[in-house]
Design brief:
heterodimer, A: about 260 residues, alpha/beta, Rossmann fold, six-stranded mixed beta sheet, 7 helices, about 30% helix, B: about 325 residues, mainly alpha, MetI-like fold, 2 domains, 13 helices, about 0% strand, flat
Amino acid sequence: MVGEIKVEKVVKRFKQIDGEDIIALSGIDLKINAGEFISLIGPSGCGKSTLLRLIAGLNGADEGKLYIDDKEINHPSHERGLVFQNPMLFPWLNVHDNVAFALRARGIYKENKGEVDKFIELVGLSAFHKSYPHQLSGGMAQRASLARALVNHPKVLLLDEPLGALDAFTRMNLQDELIRIWQERATTMIMVTHDVDEAIYLSDRIIVMTPRPAKIEAHIEVKLSRPRARSNSEFLKLRTNILEILNYAGHEEEPSYYL
Amino acid sequence: MKKIMKKLNNWLPVLSVVLAMVVELVLVNASKHIPAKHPYFVYLLVAFLAIFTIIALAAYYNKKAKTWIEENALFVGAAILFLNLLNIFTKKLALFPVIYFPSIDKILGIIVEEREFLALCLASSGKLLFIGYFFGAIAGFATGIGVGFSKKASYWINPLIRILGPIPATAWIPLVLISFPTTFTASAFLIALAVWFPTTVMTSSGILNVENAYFEVSSTLGAGKYYQIFKVGVPAAMPHMFIGLFNGTCASFITLMTAEMLGVKNGIGWYINWQKEMMSYANVYAGLIIIAVTFSILITLLFKVRDYVLVWQKGVIKW
């Protein structure tokens, strides 16, 4: 198995406009097993997207180191695919050419032509392979961007709120699709999300992060068998548990009088 | 009444042509005009009559012809009416000074009778324009891409663009004349300079406005630096580049007309200037008509290329 990620004592600071440093990550330690489905969850400003960008190699850490399969991460690579909330398809390329982009960029398109259609098929867009991005719905565009990242056979797939901009039903469909792809390919998946239900539905393990200072608050193993039912009592218990850690559980008001 | 008007609409150009013919044949010519060798205006009207009768008839069977004529009949009719009025004011009544406002017959006559020399002039101008435009556009793309992607290039070249760019290319004439071996190269350089500035500015600003996330995505997909520049940055900046090319085209036309005064052997701008000095205004108008038609064809071509290249842009796609 490949695709093991290690994060060791990582600190990341950003300069604010007034010149003061803001600590985006304060000494993060994390080990993600090969083939694991991990969710990073937490309120805005907890550094989950920053952590994802560091793993992608788009930014460097100020202190500490990150490793993939014991190799240090210091620049972006096709081994670590990235999918944003906004699909970011290249608007001047149709679906087929968007998916083929990575193969062409790496100069291996000729030998792997078949891969492109295979992955377009995998995400269910075969009928739209000639469509341009502006002709696709939000869900279809996100499927295409998933295929574009997967065509490289990445060891790790990084998902930055991939379903955040979609309506509830499209979202649930794509969650099932993500699970299917993950089970088929056994890629390590690291997903940033705001959605507690989504995290429980998909992940093996949920990393709960809190802001100020940005750090990991809890690791929650999800030991539910798949496919998971969103109404399962264990599911709801986990949900309450996570919301309590994040202080969003709320509390029932005492009624002011009894009937 | 409305119904009759609607039915007549497609025949408006034909009616307007017939009216112009009647006027031309019935009214007496003013004696001040020197008559042309042939009644060219009548020839033109006959040609119009044939064309618009065919279109009006075709409209009964052909959908494409129908939509075109329904939309444009009024404009075409009015345009022919304008020619008719012009003919009345010049050839028939000689209301304006004859030397500055020759008859339509005369102008058309020049185009027909001097067609070989005019074609030669057009070819010379075309050669100058294309050479200047080609090198100007290439240099503009190169500078724009350099400034857009490289901080160092931007540091050294940006001030140059800011200072030199806004100067009209024609202001360089005194310097250019002494620095180039021939007037042709000097003129071509001026045109290139006029195209270079807008192309550079729009290309670099297009590249600087590309969303960074596109580069981030492409780097996680395994694209190297140059692949990112030419396969992400350039296509993403393409809409801007075309605006630059369009502005450059307009600037190149202006510069061409001026550059031809530097002493080229012949050229359409040179022709107009030369004929003006000889007080042959019919030739001047003939030259102007040729320029108008040519330049408008060139601009149309540029738009066609743009529509083809930018087919991916929302709303540009035609089904």
